[in-house]
Design brief:
Structural Genomics Hypothetical 15.5 Kd Protein In mrcA-pckA Intergenic Region, Chain A; Ribosomal Protein S4 Delta 41, Chain A, domain 1; alpha+beta; 2 domains; 5 strands; single chain
């Protein structure tokens, strides 16, 4: 199954929470969640039924997958890594997802959405520690420096996004809006740095069976 190419606002309505899949629209009155509340997408709208235990766990996993834009196989790989790591599995899983380069680029304000950030990375506009990295799933480490490639097209695009950036840079990152915008990973992200309400325990319970 390929990447979802339909209207992304339907995904937010399906999960009943803003996934911020569009840059400006999500913060405007045009947002589907703002206009339609928790009404499910589709022609024949039915009253939302009470979820079963399995359904609530599945929805939590789907919400996180859609928020970070990862496939099932990628998500399972992160789960395997988290399961083999020391510490809380749920916190480690969310930390791995937050460390993705496309997510870091978005959280720094270099791109308006994670989808846009993926394209920015894949097209070679982003450098990590001075070297070009074109893999959106690349995991940054504490102390890494994320910069924009020093060419007019790259700098112009990122500066435009930074001008319209109204979000808050998370505490595990620092942003320097100099001639070439630069971000630094101060520490590894924790569960408190995730910008979407999520209960990792439900995901772990679902995937552990």
């Amino acid at each position: 199954m390929g990447r979802y190419t339909g209207p992304v606002c339907r995904l937010c309505r399906r999960e009943g929470v803003k996934l911020f899949l569009k840059s400006l629209r999500c913060d405007s009155p045009k947002c589907a969640i703002e206009r339609r509340g928790d009404q499910q997408p589709g022609m024949h709208v039915v009253k939302r039924r009470k979820l079963s235990d399995y359904g609530s766990r599945l929805r939590e996993k789907q919400k996180v997958k859609r928020y970070y834009g990862v496939f099932e196989r990628q998500f399972r790989r992160y789960m395997d890594i988290a399961g083999r790591s020391k510490g809380n599995t749920g916190s480690t899983l969310m930390s791995l997802l937050e460390r993705r380069l496309d997510n870091i680029v978005h959280r720094l304000g270099f791109a308006g959405s994670r989808r846009q950030a993926r394209l920015l990375v894949a097209h070679g506009h982003i450098c990590v520690n001075g070297r070009k990295v074109d893999i959106p799933s690349y995991l940054v480490s504490a102390g890494d420096t994320v910069t924009v490639k020093s060419r007019p097209k790259s700098l112009r695009f990122v500066r435009q996004n930074l001008e319209g950036f109204t979000g808050r840079v998370p505490e595990f990152l620092t942003l320097d809006k100099q001639d070439a915008p630069e971000g630094k990973v101060v520490r590894l992200p924790g569960i408190e740095d995730v910008s979407i309400p999520v209960d990792p325990a439900l995901i772990i319970e679902l995937l552990s069976k």
